[in-house]
Amino acid sequence: MRAEFGIDGMDCHDCARHVQAAICKLPGVQRADVLLGAEKAIVEADTEIDREAVAAAVRGAGYRIRNLDGRGPRDGRDARQGERRRAARGGTAQAGAEHREETGAEREPSREDPAEFTRRVLTVVGLVFGIVLFVVVVGEWLGVIDRITDEMPWPLGLALVVAGGFPVFRNVLRAAVRGRVISHTLMTVGTIAAIAVGEWATALVVVFFMRMGEYAESFTTEKSRRAVRDLTALAPARARVLRDGEEQDLPIDEVASGDTVVVRPGEMIPVDGVVSAGRATVDQAAITGESMPVERGAGEKVYAASYATLGSLRITAEQVGESTVFGNVVRLVEEAEAKRGRVARIADRFSAYYLPVVLVIAAAVVLVRGDVLAAAAVLVVACSCSFALATPIAILASIGASAKRGILIKGGSYLERLASVDVVLLDKTGTLTLGEPRVEQVLGFNGVDSHAVLELAAGAERYSEHPLAEAVRRHAASLGVTAAEPAEFSALPGRGVQAVIGSDEILVGNRAAVLGAEPLTPETMSAFAELERVRELEDQGRTVVYVARNGTAVGAVAFSDSVRPEVPDALDGLRALGLHEIELLTGDNAAVAGRLAEDLGLRYRAELLPEDKITAVRDYQAAGKRVLMVGDGVNDAPALAQADVGLAMGAAGSEIALQAGHMVLLRDDWAMVPEVVGIARRTMRVIVGNIGFTTVYNIAGLSLAALGFLPPIFAAALQSLPDLGILANSSRLLRTRAGRPETRG
User: What is the arrangement of strands in the sheet containing 496-501, beginning at the earlier edge strand?
Assistant: First the structure.
């Protein structure tokens, strides 16, 4: 059993871990992932999930449950909010330019770069921080703070501390009751220590900066997860469906596969399906990240959450709701936060052990030096919150910003792996090439004419999804050749297809499948004189498939395909990143693969079956290499799953690609391949910088405090500095515009 619950009130990753621990203690719960970015919990249990018990656990942890039906946040509040927004605009019923302008505004809530906006807010927070720090330092130097402390009654000072820090103290107390330590626990201990030694002004400064740091963190986290919210807000809420000859405006949950959906100019397409009538210019930015719209007409595929900006459509629904490509993308982006890398886990363990270490240092200062104020300063200056922030805030920012560009990253662990890949392995058809081959020539052997060969090939390939099969069918249709209906059909992965047409068994496949594994010999050539022409075509880099009838080769079909125009520059971009081990893995023949590899400067392996590609990945991994596999996500699915990082190209419409790849490019743009590697490396540099900065800062602060060089009031003023530094550094990852490749440092 699996259920999702929306959760409100979580402001930091400690909050998410706290809720997760509470849910995991419930009877029958096998797994619980609490996602700060998506503001929800995903609960899996071996029995029916007790939703009331989950709600009670969340409330007991100090947070609010949003829904009890287990459908997930985007089915609840986010969908209702989107529906209310559409209703305010006139729903799906209104069209025209004004409507398009408004829908454009919804799709792009803010044209301002979130990184710049976040940085300005953090600059303001930093300015306030600096002013207060200056006041504290000057006030302490002039003795003003001491005089204020002496004049103000101690109970009043204590009341100010408790009132200012109450929300934080409450969460710390709730965690302590359950035997848990959170990042604010150490700050609370420092506050208590300051009050205990009569430094209530120090305690007040701690509370002030603690709340300021909490605000800055919640703001940056909110900006980081806004990409996820922008996605969920785009989820279609209603659809105009044609039933019994009448148009009905229905909730999306009531639309079924096979329904005819009507979309007017300026409206959102609410389902995945095929256009049955009409033509429109479609904005697919929500799916692929492309800024340029595309033309769609009868027989072509369209996707939910895209917009018909010009023209109207009638669409036969195929997938609805969470089963659409958009629904899958939203789900995977939301759940990416749960897949955490080694660096994140190390930071979590460090945070758990940090409090005891600090307490030991403070106790040692009292026992060795007898300096209670120095011990209080140790407790005050120690900042464990920065360790907890160092990794997740950067990961969340990268995943959210990448999703807006059409790059789907399924978890921080894959970013970490991608940053250190050594080898890049590439599929050919549909990956390096456009994947839209065209038939260049049809040859018949031993008296069989080319028309008959094409008829046999088109019939055998009738139900194949391979790009070569589509090219055969398209060519046959253009010549008026009718594809026969096969009585039986089966795909032979990496080899071809087999079908029974009439009383004949037809095999269409590569040379190994039809002619056997032996190379062409003079005897073979004398048997089929036409094979000389076939060899010439292969030497020219053409892809050739052979056609056999009842075990005898009767002809061949030659195809040509084009390399994606951006591939050469993208490969140069990968080499600029230090990735020089790049190899082509293809099921195509050696001549075709060799010509392409030579043109692109690649090593290659040809005539591979899917299991051979897995073997190639494993060979590199056995040699200690970390492998990036780039494929189209269908026949490459096993190799994508085996690789350290599987990058699926052009996944819009491919359920297999969405599931098999660890990362997914939602449009066929090779320029994004070096870009995503650069994103991963930049993210890891930010994380390492965050951890390094907070480590050096805490070591320096603890040392100065323990030796008596850092008075408690100064320690209080400085304890939130690492948080602001980490938040400012991580906010750089919110940028959504493409950057230049970053070389290996």
Answer: 438-444, 552-560, 543-549, 504-509, 496-501, 488-492
Give ∠ CA 10-11-12 in degrees, rounded to 5. 105
Task: Report the chain's terminal Cα–Cα distance, integer Å.
Answer: 46
Confidence of residue 141 (pLDDT cuts 50, 70, 90): low
Architecture of domain 2-75: 2-Layer Sandwich (3.30)
CB atoms within 10 A of CB 135: 14
Domain range summary for the chain, segments of one domain joined by +: 2-75, 79-107+237-270+272-319, 115-225+337-396+680-734, 413-433+563-672, 438-560
Find out whether 315 and 271 touch, Cβ atoms under 8 Å. yes
pLDDT tops 50 at residue 166: yes
Q: Tell me the Cα Rg of the chain.
A: 31
Tens digits of residue pLDDT in 606-634:
888 777 888 999 999 999 999 999 987 65
Give the model's confidence band at 315: pLDDT under 50 very low, under 70 low, under 90 confident, else very high: very high
**Closest Cα partner for 397 from 732, 120, 132, 62?**
732
- CA distance linking residue 600 with residue 586, whole number of Å: 14
Evaluate whether 365 touches 378 at the Cβ level (below 8 Å). yes
The residue from 427, 632, 668, 669 that is catalytic is 427
CB atoms within 10 A of CB 644: 20
Task: Check if the beta carbon of residue 400 is closer than 8 Å to that of residue 524.
Answer: no
Global pTM reads: 0.62
Residue 134 has pLDDT above 70, yes or no: no
Among 245, 143, 240, smallest CA distance to 201 is for: 143
Q: Which residues contact 59 (CB under 8 A, 6 or more apart)?
A: 65
Q: In what order do the strands lie in the sheet with 581-585?
A: 407-409, 663-665, 645-648, 627-631, 423-426, 581-585, 603-605
The residues, ordered by sequence, that sit 6+ positions from 348 with a Cβ below 8 Å of its Cβ are 17, 388
CA distance 183 to 175: 11
Of the candidates 104, 17, 585, 172, which has an alpha carbon nearest to the alpha carbon of residue 308? 104
* Kind of pairing between the strands at 627-631 and 645-648: parallel
Q: Looking at domain 413-433+563-672, which CATH architecture does it have?
A: 3-Layer(aba) Sandwich (3.40)
Query: Buried b / exposed e across 178-213, counting CB within 10 Å, b at 16+?
Result: eebbbbbbbbbbbbebbbeeebbbbbbbbbbbbebb
For the question of residue 427 being annotated catalytic, the response is yes
Say whether pLDDT at 522 is over 70.
Answer: no
Per-residue H/E/C for 174-210: HHHHCCCCCHHHHHHHHHHHHHHCCCHHHHHHHHHHH
CATH number of 438-560: 3.40.1110.10
Q: How far apart are CA 252 and CA 319, in angstroms?
A: 11
- Distance (Å, rounded) from C-alpha 168 to C-alpha 161? 11
Q: Locate tokens 């990036």: which residue? A: 628
Residues 6 or more apart in contact with residue 108 via CB below 8 angstroms: none
Q: Tell me the per-residue pLDDT of 243-253, one tens digit each, with 9 for 90 and over.
A: 888 888 888 88
Written as one string, the DSSP assignment of 414-449 is HHHHHTT--EEEE--TTTTB-S--EEEEEEE-TT--
Give the CATH fold of the 79-107+237-270+272-319 domain: 2.70.150
d(CA 422, CA 404): 27
Task: Report the distance separating Cα 354 and Cα 376, nearest Å.
Answer: 16
